[in-house]
Amino acid sequence: MEERITLAHGSGGEAYRELVEEVFLPAFSNECLAPLTDSAVCSAGERIAMTTDSYVIKPLFFPGGDIGRLCISGTVNDLAVSGARPRYISVGMIIEAGFETETLRRIVQSMASTAKEAGVLIVTGDTKVVEGGGVDGIFINTAGIGVFSDDRPPLPQRIAVGDKIIISGYMASHGMAVMAARENMGFNPPILSDVAPVIKLVNAVLDNGCIVHAMRDPTRGGVAATLCEWVTGDTDIEIFEESLPVRPDVAAACGILGMDPLYIANEGIILMSVPERCADDALRLLHSMDAGKNAAVIGEVKAGSGNVHAVTGYGTKRRILMPRGEILPRIC
Amino acid sequence: MRYGFDDLKRGIAAFAAGLGRITIMEVCGTHTFCIRKYGIRQLLPENIRLVSGPGCPVCVTAQRDIAAAIGIARQKDVIFTCFGDMMRVPCGDVSLYSLYEEGRDIRIVTSPLDVLKIAEDNPSKQVVYFGIGFETTAPLTAALIEAADRMGLENLSVLSVHKTMPEAIKHLLSGNNGIDALICPGHVAAVTGSDAFDFIPSLLGKPAAVSGFEAYDIMSAILCLTGMLSRGEKKCVNMYPRAVRREGNREALRLIDKVFRKSSAVWRGLGEIEGSGLEIRDSYSKYNAALRFEISTDDVPEARGCICSQILCGKKVPTDCIHFGRTCTPRSPLGPCMVSSEGSCAAYYRYGGE
Predict the structure, then answer these.
(1) A316/B contact by beta carbon, under 8 A
(2) CATH code for position B224
(3) Nearest to B57 among A185, A313, A332 (CB)
(4) In B, which residues are within 8 Å of A256 by CB distance?
(5) What is this model's ipTM?
(6) What angle, rounded to 10 degrees, do the helices at B5-17 and B215-231 form?
(7) A303 touching B (Cβ < 8 Å)
């Protein structure tokens, strides 16, 4: 196969076949994908969860991850936090002509290993190649299907007064890793993204009898956006600023760029709202896993009127608002 | 001895009890931001009022200067570079951000020196850097111009709207203005030295404290100021000695002086202030974007009803404005005070009003 992707690789002919057989199949092989028919035929339960997301990240490779790991984790995580067990993934790629085949291989390998880690099968896909400049390198869309069962019904996704808010690990790592890489900020060692499938964390909590009222992976907009979406007309969320887990390097990068870690994207942690009686159990279960060892209770749900507040270490309160627009670095 | 945080609170309350209603101005935008972020007002007695001064560089940039930046950024074969802070400031219904969304080559940099590489990598383009900010960012712009000159980069220029702080404070506080004491900007003082603010007690007859940016720093500065007010003392005290020396950062001052000369500058809200601007010296004039590009110098009117200019002087607070939180929000700002996270309006909006 050629060193670079050409328009022919998207044309459905011989070159396309070559791309599929030499790059995709060796990485993704499974019984649902193998027949290479127009649709993958898979089995699932009565109720399924389905989600889709597109990935247009720059740079494609960043400390701690790459677009391949991101596009599988993102979709798996959206399924997992609904309470479903992720099963099947589809992959649509739009590639710029001239893209290095070796780079594509690395991305595909990363997708395959992340899918394996998450226990999902990549069962169908599509590739289009556009002329140079048509897209920036590669855009990837993934869709996913997860299944519910009697012991794992959909989560109510509704917080209740008295709930504790639990975070499964350090926040703001992904957003700051990507920003530091993009801005060439030269952190040494580099800031690592947290991008990872969270399904094992979710399973640890849900399969061990913990009641969870709401669960989300706080991606774009960060923890703040999720909390603001959770509050209802008759609840408030109060978070304890000093309990928010942020890695020191991430906190430093946030400080330099004038950013609040609450608003920065995450790709490998979960936020949960759990009844108080289950909070200790949930925390213990998370702490028992490597990815959850920095889990913490960061706040609680109170009766109120739809506001999110942070309580500072000085006993003062400030409001947390829904983020608006792209977050830009602040220097002067 | 280092006081505990509660000691600071109690100390301020004790001093304030012997004072009438007092108004302290925090000059620096980052102080405005931190005061809201930490909820400092909630820790102070009722009779202490904090007002924001003209220390948010985004907020005090004149509409005319923003129009000039937009005018240059719109030109063919221009790569326009700036700090993220300026991207969303509106000028009419255009901003640098809206041009970026249209596909214009506008790049956010986190250091002016990044512009050198952009200019080197794009020899067929004119690369322009928008120099904004006070004495804190001016040395970086000076370093950029000096490096460009050393490297002989012909395609790089700077639109400088840099300003200096002491002249603006002098201008703002001469005459009756209801301000009793000042929290002076720690970052600016790290460059200028704390001595640069000695004129506040000596010339304006008010106590001043140079402050850092942690809650403890700000509370310490307020304690220092209320203490001086209750004793009738008028001094400028450096409460940020871990970053600020009396004489400042000599190398940074040397760079500023090498590349810039003092000039008159137009401040949004304050008007023209003699000696408060930094203009690129004639010896570096080929790097002056204001000379390289044709720029309209017509005045651009403020958005109708926007009271940013009065908020910048400490005459009004954001909640006095009819647009605040209604027709003017961080998502669709009418004036710069709502754009910059250091701006009073954005800080009030984000962290709640009084």
Answers:
(1) yes
(2) 3.40.50.11740
(3) A332
(4) 110
(5) 0.84
(6) 30
(7) no
